[in-house]
From TrEMBL:
GO biological processes: DNA integration; DNA recombination
Domain Core-binding (CB): 8-98
Gene3D superfamilies assigned to the protein according to its UniProt record, in alphabetical order: 1.10.150.130, Intergrase catalytic core (1.10.443.10)
Chain positions covered by the region annotation Disordered: 331-350
Keyword terms, alphabetized: DNA recombination, DNA-binding
Domain of life: Archaea
Domain Tyr recombinase, first and last residues per copy: 122-344
GO MF term set: DNA binding
Protein name listed in UniProt: Site-specific integrase
Length: 350
Protein backbone atom coordinates (compact mmCIF):
# COMPACT_ATOMS: atom_id res chain seq x y z
CA UNK A 1 0.00 0.00 0.00
CA UNK A 2 1.30 3.44 -0.90
CA UNK A 3 2.87 5.40 1.96
CA UNK A 4 1.09 8.54 0.72
CA UNK A 5 -2.29 7.28 1.96
CA UNK A 6 -3.68 8.50 5.26
CA UNK A 7 -5.71 6.02 7.35
CA UNK A 8 -9.44 6.75 7.64
CA UNK A 9 -12.48 4.61 8.57
CA UNK A 10 -14.87 4.01 5.63
CA UNK A 11 -17.81 5.61 7.47
CA UNK A 12 -15.84 8.79 8.14
CA UNK A 13 -14.80 9.05 4.48
CA UNK A 14 -18.44 8.67 3.42
CA UNK A 15 -19.42 11.51 5.75
CA UNK A 16 -16.72 13.72 4.23
CA UNK A 17 -17.97 12.85 0.74
CA UNK A 18 -21.53 13.66 1.70
CA UNK A 19 -20.44 17.01 3.14
CA UNK A 20 -18.39 17.83 0.02
CA UNK A 21 -21.42 17.22 -2.21
CA UNK A 22 -23.22 20.21 -0.69
CA UNK A 23 -21.51 22.63 -3.06
CA UNK A 24 -22.79 21.03 -6.26
CA UNK A 25 -25.73 18.74 -5.53
CA UNK A 26 -29.31 19.11 -4.36
CA UNK A 27 -30.32 17.71 -0.98
CA UNK A 28 -32.24 14.82 -2.54
CA UNK A 29 -29.18 13.76 -4.56
CA UNK A 30 -26.99 13.87 -1.45
CA UNK A 31 -29.49 11.87 0.53
CA UNK A 32 -29.68 9.23 -2.22
CA UNK A 33 -25.88 8.93 -2.40
CA UNK A 34 -25.58 8.59 1.36
CA UNK A 35 -28.24 5.88 1.40
CA UNK A 36 -26.53 3.94 -1.39
CA UNK A 37 -23.18 4.04 0.38
CA UNK A 38 -24.64 2.64 3.61
CA UNK A 39 -24.41 -0.82 2.06
CA UNK A 40 -20.71 -0.31 1.36
CA UNK A 41 -20.15 0.75 4.98
CA UNK A 42 -22.01 -2.34 6.18
CA UNK A 43 -19.94 -4.53 3.87
CA UNK A 44 -16.71 -3.07 5.30
CA UNK A 45 -17.95 -3.69 8.83
CA UNK A 46 -18.82 -7.32 8.06
CA UNK A 47 -15.45 -7.92 6.40
CA UNK A 48 -13.66 -6.07 9.25
CA UNK A 49 -12.20 -3.42 6.92
CA UNK A 50 -11.48 -0.63 9.39
CA UNK A 51 -9.24 1.46 7.12
CA UNK A 52 -10.36 2.58 3.67
CA UNK A 53 -6.68 2.46 2.59
CA UNK A 54 -6.92 -1.34 2.69
CA UNK A 55 -9.75 -1.71 0.17
CA UNK A 56 -8.57 -3.61 -2.91
CA UNK A 57 -10.00 -4.39 -6.31
CA UNK A 58 -10.84 -7.85 -5.03
CA UNK A 59 -12.82 -6.33 -2.16
CA UNK A 60 -14.77 -4.25 -4.65
CA UNK A 61 -15.64 -7.33 -6.66
CA UNK A 62 -16.74 -9.12 -3.50
CA UNK A 63 -18.91 -6.16 -2.61
CA UNK A 64 -20.55 -6.31 -6.04
CA UNK A 65 -21.48 -9.98 -5.54
CA UNK A 66 -22.52 -9.39 -1.92
CA UNK A 67 -24.82 -6.52 -2.92
CA UNK A 68 -26.22 -8.29 -6.00
CA UNK A 69 -27.36 -11.15 -3.77
CA UNK A 70 -29.37 -8.74 -1.63
CA UNK A 71 -27.08 -8.30 1.37
CA UNK A 72 -27.04 -4.91 3.04
CA UNK A 73 -30.69 -4.13 3.55
CA UNK A 74 -32.39 -7.45 4.20
CA UNK A 75 -34.23 -7.64 0.88
CA UNK A 76 -34.26 -10.12 -1.95
CA UNK A 77 -31.54 -10.00 -4.65
CA UNK A 78 -31.60 -6.53 -6.18
CA UNK A 79 -32.29 -5.64 -9.78
CA UNK A 80 -29.42 -5.01 -12.15
CA UNK A 81 -30.41 -1.38 -12.59
CA UNK A 82 -30.30 -0.88 -8.80
CA UNK A 83 -26.88 -2.48 -8.62
CA UNK A 84 -25.64 -0.23 -11.43
CA UNK A 85 -26.77 2.87 -9.56
CA UNK A 86 -25.09 1.78 -6.34
CA UNK A 87 -21.83 0.94 -8.09
CA UNK A 88 -21.86 4.26 -9.95
CA UNK A 89 -22.18 6.06 -6.63
CA UNK A 90 -19.35 3.95 -5.21
CA UNK A 91 -17.12 4.90 -8.15
CA UNK A 92 -17.80 8.58 -7.55
CA UNK A 93 -17.07 8.17 -3.84
CA UNK A 94 -13.76 6.41 -4.54
CA UNK A 95 -12.72 9.25 -6.86
CA UNK A 96 -13.34 11.63 -3.98
CA UNK A 97 -11.52 9.30 -1.59
CA UNK A 98 -8.45 9.40 -3.85
CA UNK A 99 -8.46 13.20 -3.66
CA UNK A 100 -8.23 13.07 0.14
CA UNK A 101 -5.45 10.42 0.08
CA UNK A 102 -7.72 7.64 1.33
CA UNK A 103 -7.35 5.17 -1.60
CA UNK A 104 -5.18 4.67 -4.66
CA UNK A 105 -6.01 7.18 -7.44
CA UNK A 106 -6.93 4.43 -9.90
CA UNK A 107 -8.99 2.28 -7.52
CA UNK A 108 -12.33 3.65 -8.78
CA UNK A 109 -11.52 2.23 -12.23
CA UNK A 110 -11.79 -1.26 -10.76
CA UNK A 111 -15.48 -0.75 -10.07
CA UNK A 112 -17.01 -2.02 -13.31
CA UNK A 113 -20.63 -1.15 -14.03
CA UNK A 114 -22.96 -3.86 -15.36
CA UNK A 115 -23.90 -3.55 -19.01
CA UNK A 116 -27.59 -2.86 -19.46
CA UNK A 117 -29.58 -4.08 -22.41
CA UNK A 118 -31.73 -1.52 -24.19
CA UNK A 119 -34.49 -0.43 -21.85
CA UNK A 120 -33.33 -2.46 -18.83
CA UNK A 121 -32.52 0.68 -16.86
CA UNK A 122 -35.93 2.25 -17.48
CA UNK A 123 -39.13 1.55 -15.57
CA UNK A 124 -42.14 0.73 -17.77
CA UNK A 125 -44.66 1.70 -15.10
CA UNK A 126 -46.95 4.61 -15.93
CA UNK A 127 -50.38 6.08 -15.22
CA UNK A 128 -52.23 5.96 -18.51
CA UNK A 129 -54.15 9.06 -19.54
CA UNK A 130 -57.55 7.37 -19.42
CA UNK A 131 -56.92 6.16 -15.86
CA UNK A 132 -55.66 9.57 -14.72
CA UNK A 133 -58.73 11.27 -16.19
CA UNK A 134 -61.07 8.68 -14.68
CA UNK A 135 -59.57 9.20 -11.21
CA UNK A 136 -59.79 12.97 -11.59
CA UNK A 137 -63.43 12.72 -12.66
CA UNK A 138 -64.16 10.59 -9.60
CA UNK A 139 -62.43 13.10 -7.32
CA UNK A 140 -64.33 15.99 -8.93
CA UNK A 141 -67.60 14.30 -7.91
CA UNK A 142 -66.67 12.58 -4.64
CA UNK A 143 -64.01 14.84 -3.12
CA UNK A 144 -63.84 18.08 -5.14
CA UNK A 145 -60.97 20.42 -4.22
CA UNK A 146 -59.73 18.00 -1.55
CA UNK A 147 -56.01 17.70 -0.95
CA UNK A 148 -55.99 14.40 -2.85
CA UNK A 149 -57.79 16.02 -5.77
CA UNK A 150 -55.41 19.00 -5.89
CA UNK A 151 -52.28 16.84 -5.67
CA UNK A 152 -53.27 14.66 -8.63
CA UNK A 153 -54.68 17.65 -10.55
CA UNK A 154 -51.40 19.58 -10.27
CA UNK A 155 -49.23 16.54 -10.99
CA UNK A 156 -51.28 15.63 -14.06
CA UNK A 157 -51.96 19.09 -15.47
CA UNK A 158 -48.41 20.39 -15.04
CA UNK A 159 -46.38 17.18 -15.33
CA UNK A 160 -44.20 18.56 -12.52
CA UNK A 161 -42.12 16.53 -10.10
CA UNK A 162 -43.26 15.88 -6.54
CA UNK A 163 -40.67 18.29 -5.13
CA UNK A 164 -41.97 21.13 -7.30
CA UNK A 165 -45.58 20.58 -6.20
CA UNK A 166 -44.57 20.23 -2.57
CA UNK A 167 -42.55 23.47 -2.74
CA UNK A 168 -45.40 25.68 -3.92
CA UNK A 169 -46.23 28.65 -1.68
CA UNK A 170 -49.36 30.79 -1.75
CA UNK A 171 -47.24 33.59 -3.25
CA UNK A 172 -46.54 31.30 -6.23
CA UNK A 173 -50.17 31.24 -7.34
CA UNK A 174 -51.59 33.67 -9.89
CA UNK A 175 -55.12 32.33 -10.11
CA UNK A 176 -56.70 35.45 -11.56
CA UNK A 177 -54.13 35.80 -14.37
CA UNK A 178 -52.92 39.21 -13.26
CA UNK A 179 -49.21 38.60 -13.88
CA UNK A 180 -48.11 40.95 -16.70
CA UNK A 181 -45.92 38.37 -18.46
CA UNK A 182 -48.18 35.32 -18.16
CA UNK A 183 -51.55 35.29 -19.91
CA UNK A 184 -54.17 33.57 -17.81
CA UNK A 185 -53.94 31.64 -14.50
CA UNK A 186 -50.50 30.25 -13.70
CA UNK A 187 -48.32 28.82 -10.96
CA UNK A 188 -44.63 29.40 -10.38
CA UNK A 189 -42.11 26.74 -9.42
CA UNK A 190 -39.17 28.29 -7.52
CA UNK A 191 -35.85 26.82 -6.38
CA UNK A 192 -35.62 27.54 -2.63
CA UNK A 193 -32.89 25.24 -1.26
CA UNK A 194 -32.21 27.31 1.84
CA UNK A 195 -35.72 26.73 3.15
CA UNK A 196 -36.12 23.06 2.30
CA UNK A 197 -37.69 23.01 -1.19
CA UNK A 198 -35.00 22.72 -3.87
CA UNK A 199 -35.92 21.93 -7.46
CA UNK A 200 -34.32 19.02 -9.29
CA UNK A 201 -32.60 21.29 -11.82
CA UNK A 202 -31.99 24.04 -9.26
CA UNK A 203 -32.25 27.61 -10.63
CA UNK A 204 -32.86 26.26 -14.14
CA UNK A 205 -36.03 24.68 -12.79
CA UNK A 206 -37.58 28.00 -11.73
CA UNK A 207 -40.44 28.73 -14.14
CA UNK A 208 -44.07 29.76 -14.61
CA UNK A 209 -46.56 27.12 -15.80
CA UNK A 210 -49.96 28.06 -17.22
CA UNK A 211 -52.97 26.27 -15.77
CA UNK A 212 -56.57 26.12 -16.99
CA UNK A 213 -59.40 28.22 -15.64
CA UNK A 214 -60.96 25.06 -14.19
CA UNK A 215 -57.75 24.10 -12.38
CA UNK A 216 -57.54 27.64 -10.98
CA UNK A 217 -61.15 27.36 -9.75
CA UNK A 218 -60.46 24.09 -7.94
CA UNK A 219 -57.37 25.64 -6.36
CA UNK A 220 -59.45 28.58 -5.16
CA UNK A 221 -61.98 26.19 -3.60
CA UNK A 222 -59.19 24.18 -1.98
CA UNK A 223 -57.66 27.31 -0.46
CA UNK A 224 -61.04 28.44 0.87
CA UNK A 225 -62.42 25.16 2.21
CA UNK A 226 -59.66 22.59 2.71
CA UNK A 227 -56.21 24.14 3.09
CA UNK A 228 -54.90 24.14 6.67
CA UNK A 229 -53.99 27.67 7.78
CA UNK A 230 -50.40 26.81 8.70
CA UNK A 231 -46.83 27.83 7.96
CA UNK A 232 -43.84 25.55 7.54
CA UNK A 233 -40.67 25.46 9.65
CA UNK A 234 -39.26 28.40 7.67
CA UNK A 235 -42.27 30.66 8.10
CA UNK A 236 -43.49 30.06 4.55
CA UNK A 237 -47.12 29.41 3.61
CA UNK A 238 -47.33 26.22 1.55
CA UNK A 239 -50.14 25.53 -0.90
CA UNK A 240 -50.36 21.80 -0.09
CA UNK A 241 -50.59 21.36 3.67
CA UNK A 242 -51.06 18.96 6.52
CA UNK A 243 -52.06 20.10 9.99
CA UNK A 244 -48.35 20.16 10.81
CA UNK A 245 -47.28 22.36 7.89
CA UNK A 246 -45.74 21.43 4.54
CA UNK A 247 -46.12 17.72 3.72
CA UNK A 248 -43.14 15.42 3.30
CA UNK A 249 -42.49 14.04 -0.16
CA UNK A 250 -43.50 10.63 1.11
CA UNK A 251 -46.95 11.99 2.02
CA UNK A 252 -47.55 12.89 -1.62
CA UNK A 253 -46.32 9.48 -2.78
CA UNK A 254 -48.65 7.74 -0.33
CA UNK A 255 -51.53 9.87 -1.61
CA UNK A 256 -50.89 8.66 -5.16
CA UNK A 257 -50.60 5.03 -4.07
CA UNK A 258 -53.92 5.41 -2.25
CA UNK A 259 -56.04 7.00 -4.97
CA UNK A 260 -54.70 4.94 -7.89
CA UNK A 261 -55.95 1.65 -6.41
CA UNK A 262 -59.09 0.61 -8.34
CA UNK A 263 -60.87 -0.51 -5.16
CA UNK A 264 -60.48 2.95 -3.62
CA UNK A 265 -63.10 4.30 -6.01
CA UNK A 266 -65.33 1.25 -5.85
CA UNK A 267 -64.05 -0.72 -8.85
CA UNK A 268 -63.63 -4.47 -8.74
CA UNK A 269 -60.12 -5.74 -8.13
CA UNK A 270 -58.36 -6.56 -11.44
CA UNK A 271 -55.97 -8.86 -9.55
CA UNK A 272 -58.64 -11.24 -8.19
CA UNK A 273 -57.90 -10.29 -4.59
CA UNK A 274 -60.41 -10.39 -1.76
CA UNK A 275 -60.68 -6.69 -0.93
CA UNK A 276 -61.77 -7.49 2.62
CA UNK A 277 -58.49 -9.31 3.24
CA UNK A 278 -56.09 -7.44 0.94
CA UNK A 279 -53.26 -5.74 2.85
CA UNK A 280 -53.03 -3.03 0.17
CA UNK A 281 -56.36 -1.58 1.34
CA UNK A 282 -54.50 -0.15 4.36
CA UNK A 283 -53.09 3.31 3.65
CA UNK A 284 -49.55 2.48 4.75
CA UNK A 285 -49.58 -0.62 2.52
CA UNK A 286 -51.22 0.90 -0.57
CA UNK A 287 -48.03 0.65 -2.62
CA UNK A 288 -48.37 -3.15 -2.51
CA UNK A 289 -51.36 -2.98 -4.86
CA UNK A 290 -50.11 -3.90 -8.38
CA UNK A 291 -52.34 -1.15 -9.78
CA UNK A 292 -51.05 1.63 -7.52
CA UNK A 293 -48.92 4.27 -9.19
CA UNK A 294 -46.31 6.77 -8.02
CA UNK A 295 -45.93 10.49 -8.85
CA UNK A 296 -43.20 9.48 -11.32
CA UNK A 297 -45.79 7.36 -13.13
CA UNK A 298 -48.10 10.37 -13.38
CA UNK A 299 -45.28 12.37 -14.96
CA UNK A 300 -44.49 9.61 -17.47
CA UNK A 301 -48.18 9.30 -18.32
CA UNK A 302 -48.40 13.02 -18.98
CA UNK A 303 -45.36 12.96 -21.26
CA UNK A 304 -46.82 10.03 -23.20
CA UNK A 305 -50.10 11.90 -23.54
CA UNK A 306 -48.34 15.05 -24.80
CA UNK A 307 -46.36 13.01 -27.33
CA UNK A 308 -49.40 11.10 -28.55
CA UNK A 309 -51.16 14.44 -29.08
CA UNK A 310 -48.19 15.77 -31.11
CA UNK A 311 -47.28 18.53 -28.66
CA UNK A 312 -43.90 19.87 -29.90
CA UNK A 313 -40.90 18.44 -28.07
CA UNK A 314 -39.58 21.85 -27.08
CA UNK A 315 -42.89 22.72 -25.42
CA UNK A 316 -42.89 19.46 -23.45
CA UNK A 317 -39.25 19.96 -22.41
CA UNK A 318 -39.91 23.48 -21.17
CA UNK A 319 -43.12 22.64 -19.32
CA UNK A 320 -41.69 19.60 -17.56
CA UNK A 321 -38.17 21.03 -17.16
CA UNK A 322 -36.39 17.98 -18.53
CA UNK A 323 -34.03 17.29 -21.41
CA UNK A 324 -35.20 15.54 -24.57
CA UNK A 325 -33.02 12.50 -23.78
CA UNK A 326 -34.49 12.14 -20.28
CA UNK A 327 -38.04 12.49 -21.61
CA UNK A 328 -37.41 9.85 -24.28
CA UNK A 329 -35.71 7.36 -21.97
CA UNK A 330 -37.64 7.69 -18.74
CA UNK A 331 -41.06 9.19 -19.42
CA UNK A 332 -42.35 8.47 -22.93
CA UNK A 333 -44.31 5.20 -22.71
CA UNK A 334 -45.65 4.99 -26.27
CA UNK A 335 -45.10 1.58 -27.82
CA UNK A 336 -42.99 1.22 -30.95
CA UNK A 337 -46.20 0.54 -32.90
CA UNK A 338 -47.86 3.71 -31.57
CA UNK A 339 -44.83 5.80 -32.49
CA UNK A 340 -44.72 4.27 -35.97
CA UNK A 341 -48.41 4.97 -36.57
CA UNK A 342 -47.99 8.52 -35.37
CA UNK A 343 -45.06 9.11 -37.72
CA UNK A 344 -47.09 7.75 -40.61
CA UNK A 345 -49.58 10.61 -40.18
CA UNK A 346 -46.86 12.99 -41.34
CA UNK A 347 -45.36 10.88 -44.13
CA UNK A 348 -46.75 10.55 -47.67
CA UNK A 349 -47.85 7.13 -48.90
CA UNK A 350 -44.94 5.19 -50.39
Amino acid sequence: MSGDLEPIPPAEAVEMYHYAMRDEHAAATRKSAKHRLQSFIQFCEEKEIDNLNDVSGRDLYRFRIWRREGHGDGREPIKLVTLKGQLATLRSFLQFAANIDAVRPSLYEQVTLPTMKHGEDVSDSTLEADRAIAILEYLELAEPASREHIILLLLWRTGARTGAIRGLDLRDLDLDGSHPKVKGPAIRFVHRPDSGTPLKNQEDGTRWNRISEMTAKYLEDYLEYHRQDVTDDHGRKPVITTRYGRPAGNTIRKTLYKITRPCWRGESCPHNRDVAECEATHLDQASKCPSSRSPHDVRSGRVTYYRSEDVPRRIVQDRLNASEDILDRHYDRRTDREQAEQRSDYLPDL
